[in-house]
């Protein structure tokens, strides 16, 4: 699996380099605010939003509980539609199936539209190694492919590039000679891609939802490229995660009510395709041969665990768009192709705790992500559960153990608390900047506090405990009342 792509650095190292990148912050802040406002307006227009969320969560739960039934039903109906089915228990199986399709057709040229499953299994790299020229046709994915970079968001993957950087990239790597005006860059990209669509023998794409009742696959995009990948090449490969299945068209309607609104704050995306098999006699376009690769890749292992709810996810990205931690450490801070709240839960559930570098601790447990999730996944609870599991399995940072034991002792015992406060005050005062009355970056040499003081000030403790002040104040007030004969 290729879900984690930066295991050389831990969370702190990844986050530090992202925190220092002002452009990334500004881009994410602007995107979060835009999506937040637009989504909020649309949700307000729908008084039954919460009812639809409940319904969607129930639909997705039903699919999880009866997953084998729905996968079988989808496969049978898709086959009856003329599709060729491939079932891949894990990423390696999927890669072999796909390589086999390319080999059978002697194909060396493919176009592709956005697919998180393909990222998950590292499809591009494997095809390239096998001598296949595969080109990303989604604008953002093409930028990432050209730059050799990883996505920083699951819906808007090149969020960390501005137009100057994109223009420069295409100048260096693809012979672009134009300006940084977005329309000009898009026009250039379009002219390249038209040739690619015409030359490609195989089209590879993902699938937002697979409808069990009809054996159909769907594609939800804002660029026309997905539809061209779908219709131009003679051979079509569609990657379907087993968690993409919905029972019927009515359920699809419910999900489509939520997906574009939650993802980009739009009632509907520019393109929404429902495909049911290869081109039929008399039809003017569409692939002549359609292969559907249904991939499990670890999803089954989540069933009947505390993380089962994660299988409800429809990859809308709304949880990323609201998360304050994502805003600061950006998508690359997580080191996973699935960043943000859903990324923490899914990555840890699929990959285990060994190489996360502390990812589940990139969360303040504020719960905003769960409130925004259209399928009501309790993301903050699941993140907390990962932390509990990590502590129980001794996979957390060992330095934390004595620190939290000490804090537990201090906060559970009044005498210890009082002693610690009394001892801590003069120490902090001695280390603080006298004028500010706070420890600042000059204290960043102290290992235990540097994570805080290197970025912001840490006020010294108040001159006395609140309890001491209160007792004194009460005594003075009582004395005053007795003298004045008042009782307030
Ligand atoms: S609970 Fe954690 S992951 Fe969710 S929005 Fe808050 S900080 Fe982000
Ligand atoms: S966890 Fe919820 S909000 Fe986040 S991407 Fe999945 S469906 Fe969307």
TrEMBL record:
Top-level taxon in the UniProt lineage: Bacteria
PROSITE patterns in UniProt: 4FE4S_FER_1, 4FE4S_FER_2
Gene Ontology BP annotations: lactate metabolic process
An MF annotation (GO) of this entry: 4 iron, 4 sulfur cluster binding
Keywords, in A-Z order: 4Fe-4S, Electron transport, Iron, Iron-sulfur, Metal-binding, Repeat, Transport
Signal peptide: none
Residue span(s) of domain 4Fe-4S ferredoxin-type: 303-334
InterPro entries given in the database record: 4Fe4S_Fe-S-bd, 4Fe4S_Fe_S_CS, FTHF_cligase-like_sf, Helical_ferredxn, LUD_dom, LutB/LldF, NagB/RpiA_transferase-like
Pfam families, sorted: Fer4_8 (PF13183), LUD_dom (PF02589)
NCBIfam families membership: LutB/LldF family L-lactate oxidation iron-sulfur protein
Protein name in UniProt: (4Fe-4S) cluster-containing protein
Organism this protein belongs to: Slackia heliotrinireducens (strain ATCC 29202 / DSM 20476 / NCTC 11029 / RHS 1) (Peptococcus heliotrinreducens)
